[in-house]
Amino acid sequence: MKTKVLALAALTTALAGPALADKLDDIISSGTLRCAVVLDFPPMGSRDANNTPVGFDVDYCNDLAAALGVTAEIVETPFPERIPALMSGRVDVGVASTSDTLERAKTVGMSVPYFAFEMAVTSNDKAGITSFEGMKGKTVGATAGTFEAIALEKQVKEWGEGEFRPYQTQADVFLALSQGQIDATVSTSTVAQANVKTGNFPGISVVGKAPFDTDYVALFTNREEYGLINYLNLFVNQQVRTGRYAELYEKWVGGDLPDLTVSGVYR
Amino acid sequence: MFNYTFHWNQALKALPQMLDGALVTLKIALLSMAIGLAFALLLTLFRLSGSRILSGFARTWIEIARNTPALFQIYMAHFGLGSFGIHLSPFTALLAGIAFNNAGYLAENFRGALKAIPDTQTRAGRSLGMSAIQAFRLIVLPQMLRVAFLPITNQMVWAILMTSLGVTVGMNTDLAGVTQELNARSFRTFEFFAIAAVIYYAIAKVVTLAARLIAWRMFRY
């Protein structure tokens, strides 16, 4: 009798299946992968003439969705809203050029780096700034909440003169720069070149490199979703291995392909 | 669906920084009210002046201030004037935007308050030998300010809350700016925003209570 009951209980459990599906399961069974992408950040993310999202991050999200066998949904999130979007369950994964700082990793789970930025100084031609050091004592700005904004503000404090202004979007930074409200900005070199090239912001030019550390950016999702993070890591690895990373880089940025590994240490 | 563990002790470490930001917020709100009140009074006088140009100017100001978003007004003060080569710092642009908005609303409050004072009082004053200016200054104005006092405190609360729009023009020293920056650095969005909300609430509450106390002391018949 007892064994019969036990067998029945075991059978029921087996049929009911595992009680908890993780996020990876949820994405696959829902058939949609929702990516947080910043569409104010060309060439990583922007909108084309038809208002369709395009860019490196958009393609990357589509590749990820294809690998998972689901359809991709691009959810536009400005920089400061990436994490609230994830936490409130509006997106599954962030493909949003997010710097993998230790401070942030306390809140979200980061994959291995999928892209790396170098920082460039762009200045208003009238400000007479020709290098990074030339920004000392000037009014400078950057997009609030980005790696370069944090580094630049720290630098301004170290210099002890000049002023730092954070703007909410990358477009506002270049608008302020073009108007002369700020004298210079530090942004990722890809973004700087893309914005100067558009011709929307006259009177500015890229004047040099900023000596900040290479800004490695990672995909992110909820911190406890190890299954998904594990999948993302393998996906990033496969993108490089199959040459798709190089292909996308050539398509959107061009030039020397940034190395995604740091020598001398494991990740 | 909400999947988040709160780290309050980390967020509370930033409390002194946020309180410093709250002081800046209060400073901007107070300054913008002082400037707004002065301009509102001027606009009210313009309307009463009978001059078509002056009252037209006052009406245009009030129309724009009341019928466009404060965000737009602040944005225009920074980026709009900027495109004409007039560069206001984020602090000045925010202050100018809010003061402009305050002046428009307060002028309307004053207009309503003026209507509450019967014309016969002015005429009574005049018949006692007061000049028109004396009658306005000694009889109408004190009563008008009394009637308008509570709407003025209402606008003060609104001014405090409007300072949070400064982040759009690069303001990083007020409460919203400090909060936004702490959030960007650590991604602890909900803790920092909750603390900021409590601080905003406390400031607004203190202001209304203080105003009620003042009204109780000053306006007893």
From TrEMBL, chain A:
Gene3D superfamilies, per the entry: Periplasmic binding protein-like II (3.40.190.10)
Signal peptide stretch: 1-21
Keyword flag Transmembrane helix: no
Solute-binding protein family 3/N-terminal domain location: 32-256
Keywords: Signal
Highest taxon, organism lineage: Bacteria
Protein name listed in UniProt: Transporter substrate-binding domain-containing protein
Species this protein is from: Paracoccus aestuariivivens
TrEMBL record, chain B:
Alphabetized UniProt keyword annotations: Amino-acid transport, Cell membrane, Membrane, Transmembrane, Transmembrane helix, Transport
UniProt domain ABC transmembrane type-1: residue ranges: 22-211
Protein location: Cell inner membrane; Cell membrane
Record field: transmembrane: 22-46, 147-172, 192-215
CDD domains per record: TM_PBP2
UniProt xrefs under PROSITE patterns: ABC_TM1 (PS50928)
GO molecular function list: L-cystine transmembrane transporter activity
Primary location class: membrane
GO cellular component: ATP-binding cassette (ABC) transporter complex
UniProt key word Membrane: yes
InterPro entries: AA_ABC_transptr_permease_3TM (IPR010065), ArtM/GltK/GlnP/TcyL/YhdX-like (IPR043429), MetI-like (IPR000515), MetI-like_sf (IPR035906)
Membrane topology (UniProt): Multi-pass membrane protein
Similarity comment: Belongs to the binding-protein-dependent transport system permease family. HisMQ subfamily.
UniProt xrefs under NCBIfam families: HEQRo_perm_3TM
Protein known as: ABC transporter permease subunit
Organism: Paracoccus aestuariivivens
